[in-house]
Write a structure and sequence with these properties.
By secondary structure, the chain is an alpha+beta fold. It is 21% helix and 31% strand. The termini are far apart. The strands form 2 sheets. Strands 1, 2, 3, 4, 5, 6, 7, 8, 9, 11, 14 and 16 form a 12-stranded mixed sheet that branches. A 4-stranded antiparallel sheet has the order 13-12-10-15, with no helix packed on it. The structure holds zinc ion.
Length: 299
C-alpha cells in the first residue's frame, strides 16, 4: 500500500493525493476518483474507507485512488478551480489546444491514472449547490459491463443512465474503452456518513465484480432491476428564491410544476415546469438561484 503526493506539472496546481494498492496476484487495474469537484465529501471518505479495508495479499490487480482529484478546488471548498474558474469535470481528457492549470490537471489525471486503468469509478455528490437522489450510473455506449457493476453497487443507489457529455471524466473514460461508472449522493456540502458507507460497500462490490477480491458471505450481490433514471439537468433562465413543489424521488409528468421562483417582494418570477416525464433526481440546496443555475434533474 502506497500513500503519497503526486506532483504534477500544472502551473500553480498543488500535488494530487494518491493511494495505491498492488495485489499479490495479477488482475485488472481499477481507479477510483473523488473530489473532482472540491465541495463534495462522500467520495473522498469512501476512497479512504475502501483502502482501509483492502488487503493487498488478497487482491488481484491494482487499485489506484485519487480521493481529491482537484486539490486547489478542495482547499477553496469550491466546485471549480479558484484560479481559472474552470470546472475540472468538463475538460477531460485535457486535450492540447486548451489552456490553463485545470486543463493541465485534467491531462495529468487522465493520462497518469485513467489511461493505464481498465475501469474507473468517479464519485460525486451535489456539492454546495445541489442535493441528489443517490445514483450509480453508466453510459449508453457501455457494452454491458459497467451496467452490471452499477446494478450490483448497492440498493441505496438508483440505477442511472448518465447523459453523454464531452469533458466529463467518466464519459471520456468510457469513450477511451474503460469500464466507467459515475455516482451521486445527496449534497449540500455535508458529509453523509451513510453515503460514504454505501459508496465504500459499492466499491467493494465493483472489486468483486471485476474478480479482484473474493466476496465475504455477508456481501451478497443483488442485481438491481429498476429502470434507470435518464434525462438531464434543467437550468433556470431567471434567478429568484426557489420554493420546490416536489421532493427528491417524486415521479412527475412533463410540464408538471417543480417549484416557484419569487423575487424579494414576493412577486412570482417564474413557475419552473418539468421538461420531461420522470423521477426528480436532483434539486437545489442553495435556494437562491441565479439565471443559468441548475434547478432540477429529472429523468
Ligand atoms: Zn461533482
Amino acid at each position: 500500500m502506497w500513500r503519497g503526493w503526486w506532483q504534477i506539472t500544472a502551473a500553480g496546481m498543488p500535488a494530487v493525493p494518491v493511494i495505491a494498492a498492488r495485489g499479490a496476484r495479477a488482475g485488472p487495474t481499477l481507479v477510483v476518483t473523488g473530489g473532482v469537484h472540491g465541495d463534495e465529501y462522500e467520495g473522498p471518505a469512501a476512497v479512504h474507507g475502501l483502502f482501509a479495508r483492502l488487503d493487498p495479499a488478497r487482491l488481484r490487480g491494482r487499485v489506484l485512488g485519487a480521493p481529491v482529484a482537484n486539490m486547489a478546488a478542495w482547499q477553496a471548498r469550491a466546485r471549480v478551480t479558484p484560479t481559472d474558474r474552470v470546472n475540472l469535470n468538463r475538460v477531460f481528457p485535457g486535450d492540447r489546444g486548451m489552456e490553463g492549470p485545470t486543463r493541465a490537471l485534467a491531462e495529468a489525471v487522465f493520462e497518469g491514472l485513467v489511461r493505464p486503468a481498465d475501469a474507473l469509478v468517479d464519485l460525486h455528490s451535489g456539492g454546495v449547490a445541489l442535493v441528489h437522489l443517490p445514483l450509480i450510473g453508466w453510459y449508453a455506449g457501455d457494452d454491458g459491463r459497467a451496467e452490471r457493476l452499477a446494478r450490483t453497487f448497492g440498493p441505496a443507489l438508483h440505477p442511472w443512465l448518465i447523459p453523454d457529455e464531452r469533458g466529463v471524466l467518466s464519459y471520456e473514460a468510457q469513450r477511451s474503452g474503460k469500464v466507467a461508472l459515475g455516482a451521486e449522493w445527496h449534497g449540500g456540502a455535508r458529509l453523509d456518513a451513510a453515503g460514504a458507507a454505501a459508496y465504500t460497500a459499492g466499491l467493494r462490490s465493483v472489486l468483486r465484480g471485476l474478480g479482484m477480491i473474493d466476496g465475504e458471505a455477508s456481501e451478497v450481490q443483488h442485481l438491481d432491476g429498476r429502470q434507470p433514471i435518464a434525462g438531464d439537468y434543467q437550468e433556470t433562465p431567471v434567478g429568484g428564491l426557489f420554493v420546490p413543489a416536489v421532493v427528491l424521488g417524486a415521479r412527475v409528468a412533463a410540464g408538471q410544476a417543480l417549484g416557484t421562483l419569487y423575487d424579494e417582494v414576493g412577486v412570482v418570477v417564474a413557475e419552473v415546469l418539468s421538461a420531461r416525464e420522470g423521477i426528480v433526481a436532483g434539486l437545489p440546496h442553495l435556494a437562491l438561484l441565479r439565471a443559468g443555475d441548475r434547478v432540477a434533474y429529472v429523468g
